[in-house]
Amino acid sequence: MRRLVIDTDAGVDDAQAMLLAFGHKDAEIVAFTTVNGNVDVNKTTANVLKVLDLVRKDVPVYRGCEKPLIVEPHHASYVHGEDGLGDCGIPASIRQPEKKHAVQALIDLANENPGQLSLVTIGPLTNLAVALQLDPDLPKKYADLTIMGGAIYGKGNTNITAEFNIFVDPEAARVVFERWSMIRVLSWETTMAYVFTKSDLERFFALNTLKSKFFHDTSQIILNFVRNRMNMEILFAPDGLAVAAAIDPSLIIKKELHYMSVETGGIQSRGFTYVDWWDSSGKPANAEIILEVDQKRFVQMMEDGLR
Q1: DSSP secondary structure, 92-157, as one string
Q2: Is 0.85 topped by the overall pTM?
Q3: d(Cα 82, Cα 87) in Å, to the nearest integer?
Q4: Residues ≥6 apart with Cβ < 8 Å to 245
Q5: 277 vs 281: CA distance, rounded Å
Q6: Which range marks the domain in which residue 139 is found?
Q7: Residue 230 pLDDT more than 90?
Q8: Amino acid 278: pLDDT
Q9: Are 135 and 107 in contact (CB under 8 A)?
Q10: What is the pLDDT of residue 267?
Q11: Span 65-91, mean pLDDT?
Q12: Which of 128, 211, 238, 246 has the fewest CB atoms inside 10 Å of its own CB, making it the most exposed?
């Protein structure tokens, strides 16, 4: 049984990742922490509560940081919709988040369950960076850390070289990479190679469940964005892949261990996650960089979450 804490800037693919996690028999979601990212933190918090309504689960939700450490917020409503869930009219939840701040929750959860919890971050790393300032021993208290983030070959999706989650708060990302001894990394380029195809989507939509309808309705803005920009009928699922790998690491087919950190300067290099591919720096590896996964099993895990 994998016991997960998921830190999220709940947009469309974050919500899909939540459904995947709830659909896996060997996963227990202990808590959600929310952060500014795809949309503002009030909306990301509201979106997690909406998903909990859909799956009829009671999991504590802790509202986190409103802004990055230094810069002003940068959102992606042009992809996820103004509400972060595709602007398709998902009703607001009457549930309320916990009163405790997400940063304190990350610290308390680790100290109350030392070595028992897997942390998965599928948004900017602001909450975790602040938590590390307050509790520098946090990396020793979580069983492992999986992040969706980074562009390991410099093929970014926000500026030329940077992936969104890192670009939004590169200072926070740098803190995390410098303080954590080993991080499982699902980069933007890797997740681009493992998308949901048109046939996958038709299979999901045909399930005719409340979850598959939610998946269909919330995905339309992104599907149109990809269709118009790339002329393709596919859906990227980066957060779902990160959560799947955290739940079942045997999904991973190929990985490499290297030193990895984050560039915080420059016009086009800000947020670039650079990898010491040749291990020439002499610095110890701090990243388990995932390069290949079992696509068939990933698709099945998503389908299980929609049933």
Answers
A1: PPS---BSS-HHHHHHHHHHHSTTT-EEEE-S-SHHHHHHHHH-TTHHHHSSEEEEE---TTS--S
A2: yes
A3: 6
A4: 146, 184, 186, 251, 252, 290, 293
A5: 10
A6: 2-306
A7: no
A8: 97
A9: yes
A10: 87
A11: 96
A12: 211
